[in-house]
Write a structure and sequence with these properties.
Layout lengths: L2 E3 L8 E7 L3 H9 L7 E7 L6 E5 L2 E5 L1 H5 L1 E5 L1
Antiparallel strand pairs: 1-6, 2-3, 2-6, 3-4, 4-5
Length: about 80
Amino acid sequence: MKELDLTEMKNSKSGTIVKILGGRGMRTRVGALGIRVGCKIEKVSEHIMRGPVVVKVGATRAAIGYGMAKKIIVSLE
């Protein structure tokens, strides 16, 4: 399986989160959005020029910053 960060994924593709890089604060922030290792995640869209990335985890949609999205590693399905 191929592993990419969220910024490298194409829109409408999904995968399983395998790693969240960064410190405890980063993991706490994304964890509050339901983004955790082992969860299925779908990339809905992204804005050009390093703007926010919109993702879907379960029934929840969330926009996360480009830097945070770069630290979420996903295994494609």
